[in-house]
Amino acid sequence: MAAAPAAAAHPAGASRAPSVVALGGGHGLAASLSALRHLTDRLTAVVTVADDGGSSGRLRRELGGLPPGDLRMALSALCDDSEWGRTWRDVLQHRFTSEGSLHQHATGNLLIATLWELLGDEVAGLDWVGRLLGARGRVLPMAAVPLDIVADVLGLVPGAPGQVTEVRGQVAVASTTGRVATVRLLPPDPPVPPEVVEAVATADWVVLGPGSWFTSVLPHLMVPALAHALTRTAARTCVTLNLAAQPGETDGFSAEAHLEVLAAHAPGLRVDTVLADPVAVTDESALRASAAALGADVVLRTVSAGDGTPRHDALRLAAAYRDVFAAGT
Predict the structure, then answer these.
(1) pLDDT by position in tens, the chain (length 329)
(2) Closest Cα to residue 144, out of 118, 130, 126?
(3) Of 328, 320, 212, 321, nearest to 261 (Cα)?
(4) Type and span of the H or E element at 107
(5) Which residues make up the CATH 3.40.50.10680 domain(s) of the chain?
(6) Is the pTM of this model over 0.85?
(7) Are the C-beta atoms of residues 68 and 52 closer than 8 Å to each other?
(8) Would you put residue 248 in left (φ > 0), alpha (ψ -120 to 50) or beta?
């Protein structure tokens, strides 16, 4: 198996960078990784593997393996900040435009799928791509098999707002016009790579979110082996809230509603800090009450890009994480 990218050495007497595990998927995880890479190279991304749309979904159906897209995005977020690293990041993120079967396939998805076929080992394949990028950290799949997300959704039947409809698939759940009540995974107890459990067990901090709440954040807490590791680790946990509700998935959700859903899906999870941008908080006292129910303090920091879009600024988010980690030391 290929070795993980080596962490940079720290000078004698210098404080050691924290070991951080970031959980999520898609653009949300890429945002947290883009910030955390400024604070530590002892960084492990644990990525959802339920994507069933686009290039990832096509490769998943055709090859029967894990969907590589969210894993590719996490690797790209950790690339070395050099011409070499940025060039290979752009290669990974490039999408083909054609009239044929390559249309909208991402180069990185094809590269990752190729390595998986050659090596027969998903973790080793991701480590090889990390080495190519000079990645500041390691990327691991949340489970060793592809997952399906199944949601109970309210409001899809006209005239029956309380009727529950089962919606299956990450893309379908993320784009539903109803209100998601609960989610679950198929298979319900998937195998988890041992490297994931070890990373969580030895971490100083676990960062959960931001990201699509029902399809990228909560699924980590519904994998029994991973949930068990998260409840047993001595690491502190920081939940990073989104900057805005997401159409379909969390329409109408307040900041505190995100925490209430989190508590309902993971009753054994201990949270130490909830990080939120004031722009996303309409009732600070309600947010603090919901956080306190999880055992957490609330840290309010401006972490948005400030351009009117619900995007995190990497440097602002890094500064906020630095303060959270320093306060929890």
Answers:
(1) 444 443 333 333 346 899 999 999 999 999 999 999 999 999 999 999 999 999 999 999 999 999 999 999 999 999 999 999 999 999 999 999 988 888 889 999 999 999 999 999 999 999 999 999 999 999 999 999 999 999 999 999 999 989 999 999 999 999 898 889 899 999 999 999 999 999 999 999 999 999 999 999 999 999 999 999 999 999 999 999 999 988 778 888 999 999 999 999 888 899 999 999 999 999 999 999 999 999 999 999 999 998 888 999 999 999 999 999 999 76
(2) 126
(3) 212
(4) helix 107-119
(5) 24-41+188-329
(6) yes
(7) no
(8) left
Token pair belonging to 120: 């027969």
Q: Which fold has domain 24-41+188-329?
A: Rossmann fold (3.40.50)
Whole-Å CA distances, 267 to 22, 48, 149 = 20, 20, 20
Looking at this protein, which amino acid is placed at residue 110? L
**Spatial strand order in the sheet of 236-240:** 138-141, 43-47, 20-24, 205-208, 236-240, 273-276, 297-300
For 272, the 3-state DSSP assignment is coil
